[in-house]
Amino acid sequence: MIKIENLSVRVQDKQILKNINLTIADGENICILGQNGCGKTTLLKAIAGLITYEGKISIDNVDIQTLKRKDLAKKLSMMSQFTNVAFDYSVYETVMMGRYSQLKSKSLFPTVNSEDRKIVEDALKLSDLYELSNRSINSLSGGQQQRVFLAKNLAQNPDILLLDEPNNHLDLKNQIELINYLREWSKSKNKNVIGVFHDLPLALSLTDQVIFMKEGQIVKQGLFTDIATKSLLEEVFEVQLLDFYQKQSDYFKHIRD
Ligand SMILES: Nc1ncnc2c1ncn2[C@@H]1O[C@H](COP(=O)(O)OP(=O)(O)OP(=O)(O)O)[C@@H](O)[C@H]1O
């Protein structure tokens, strides 16, 4: 269980998150939605222990600030919106990096065993990357790189997967397969996926547990079907969202078999 109590983040003079309270049960997925700059990424970074904050974040009743980095990495991993490909590692090497926090040895250069190799190979196959294992990540397309970083996070096998706009760069097939996989992964293994999305229908295909944010605060959270109103969506997104979706669904009615 993840519990967030009175979380606030301030950078210099700017209040970025204000008094966030949230409880996420094991096996529950949550999607975070809101306009650019409302604080979604900052919320993920706080949960990942990457920034300083006021308040308390605990995982299974342990305050994350009391955990060493490596112990926190055993529990959670975060896939950022912008992935860094500064070094010319191969696809295989990059995904294997996801295993390092899980290796048992305490030595500086822990050895990788056959189980680690199997986990990495499974993550590569699942992300449709196996054939690209030896390619340099710098030689891949944006969508292929996105899948490599997702595979790295999956190889880490965390209890909690934090995803910041995981569908960036992915074609429709990969977007749909990713969401389906994440839903199944969390359900079958009782894990949490906490994802930031801009596409509401895509987010709802992962989970109907939603958090709507605005200006650093949670405006509303809960089951989409319980909380969604036209006025709430317009307040959060500042656009006539329903009219837009209505027009889109009208187009789909014209598609013939
Ligand atoms: N290191 C920083 N220094 C100053 N301001 C920051 C810093 N990090 C974030 N901010 C500001 O905090 C606010 C929230 O940023 P955040 O990245 O969390 O938004 P977001 O909801 O994820 O946006 P997007 O949808 O564009 O990714 C923004 O106004 C941003 O400019």
Automatic annotation (TrEMBL):
A matching Pfam family: ABC_tran
**What PROSITE patterns does UniProt report for this protein, alphabetically?**
ABC_TRANSPORTER_1, ABC_TRANSPORTER_2
From the Swiss-Prot or TrEMBL record, give the protein name: Iron ABC transporter ATP-binding protein
InterPro entries per UniProt: AAA+_ATPase, ABC_transporter-like_ATP-bd, ABC_transporter-like_CS, P-loop_NTPase
Instruction: Give yes or no: UniProt keyword DNA repair.
Output: no
- UniProt key word ATP-binding: yes
What SMART domains does the database record attribute to this sequence?
AAA
What domain of life? Bacteria
Q: Name one GO molecular function term.
A: ATP binding
Species: Floricoccus tropicus
Q: What is the lineage of its organism?
A: Bacteria, Bacillati, Bacillota, Bacilli, Lactobacillales
